[in-house]
Specification:
Blueprint: E1 14-18, E2 23-25, H1 26-39, E3 45-50, H2 54-65, E4 69-74, H3 79-89, E5 93-97, E6 107-109, E7 112-116, E8 128-133, E9 143-147, H4 150-162, E10 169-172, H5 179-190, E11 194-197, H6 205-214, E12 218-221, H7 223-231, E13 244-247, H8 254-267, E14 270-277, E15 282-287, E16 301-302, E17 307-311, E18 317-318, E19 325-330, E20 337-339, E21 354-363, E22 369-374, E23 378-381, E24 384-387, H9 388-399, E25 403-407, E26 412-416, H10 422-433, E27 440-444, H11 463-469
Parallel strand pairs: 1-11, 3-4, 3-5, 4-8, 10-11, 10-12, 12-13, 13-14, 26-27
Antiparallel strand pairs: 1-2, 5-7, 6-7, 8-9, 9-20, 14-15, 15-16, 17-18, 17-19, 19-21, 21-22, 23-24, 25-26
Helix pairs in contact: 1-2, 4-5
Amino acid sequence: MSFLPSNRDSPEKIAALDDKGGVITYGSLSVLLDEFGATVPSRALVFCLCANDCGSLAGYLALYESGLVPLLLDVSTDDTLLENLITTYSPEFLWCPDAYCEKEPIVSAFGYKLVRLSDSSPHMSDQLSFLLTTSGSTGSPKLVRHKYGNLEHNARVVATTFGLTRSERGLCQLPMHYTMGLNAINSLLYAGSTVLLSNSSLMSKEFWQFFKDHEPTSFTGVPYSYEILIKMKLLKIEAAHLKILASGGGKMPEENFKKLAANAVETGRKFFSTYGATETSARMSYLSPEKAILKTGSIGKPFPGGDLFLVGPDGSEIEAPDVEGELIYRGDNVTLGYARKKEDLILGDTFEGEYRTGDVAYRDKDGDFFVVGRMSRFLKLFGHRVSLDASERLVADRFGTDCACSGTDKKMAVFVTNADILKDVTKFLAETTGLPKTAFKAYFVEEFVRTDSGKINYKALDASVIEAAG
């Protein structure tokens, strides 16, 4: 299967532009693909060091389409962490920027080169097509094993559902080594569109100059992306060319969701709220744009070809509306499973087409789903089960502050970015839950450390404060 089935007849069509001046046509991608196919043995394991630029994109596509097995990694991954991954998985090749190492290139293009790291690759399943880490740039050895057809299926249904065409210019600022960022790129390529790649911060002059110069027609962001845009009041800019806003990668605060839905109504744009995971090659479901103004926070229904359902504590399927259960997904985009060492690359399909998301959700009477939290994100305080995710939303909505909750079954630690409300937060949660104020301790932080996908990095919260909260 291929992302480029219909684009080889338009070799001059621009496939991608980046914010450093790089340009790739569909024709040049085809030439590079042929060079890889003639030079590099298929079924080799390749680590691909990525930034949002034309060289990274060209390498990823050439590797994948030539039958090699790439693992996409952040080009800024710490050297020690990268060495750990190389030791764990023994890749045969590395695709990297020319200046990254002094090894002689086997193939070079767009400022990147392919170099040899070892004489052979580990034994791999014939089903294995692609690898992504579950943890962004943290260097965790836990990988998600994709099979042939996963990425293509998700790209096709997203491109079709969003109505992407060859005239589309999609702005991709999410990292391409992150599943949602990669899916945005793949969907545009499947449609024969032009991908606009940016490594710049949303708050930088460079990003907005790139935006102005190339007039994107679509943009995909995570909730934190839109939080920045809303705070900067940038939803009010004149951008008649921008027709599609898509969100994924976590639950968006209700206030921001409402603002995006209202903005879409005012401007005639389409706002797609989507839901996904690395384990499902990115996206599982979407909320129809016309429902966004009516169903704040909903993840909607599955993309065509997928199935979402709920199960209760006893494992039986929940069919009644408004009853919470674990959200489970089935579809052709469900991956093979996980790998934690090179010996796992030979494994077959351990997921067997079904992914247990670990999210707690309910379905309304119209069949649209709403995620309410994580099954693992609960504390048992004074004998009562309390949701950390729900507590975060309550505090954020009540006080208009960023909030993160953690802790133990002895005490919940509540982190906020407003130092003036600490006592009020503790009192509010006690009154809301009916638990003693001693069950909660509020802390001030200037800002939260976040992952590549914009989610709060709970592991990075001050360990000493967490311990004190217990």
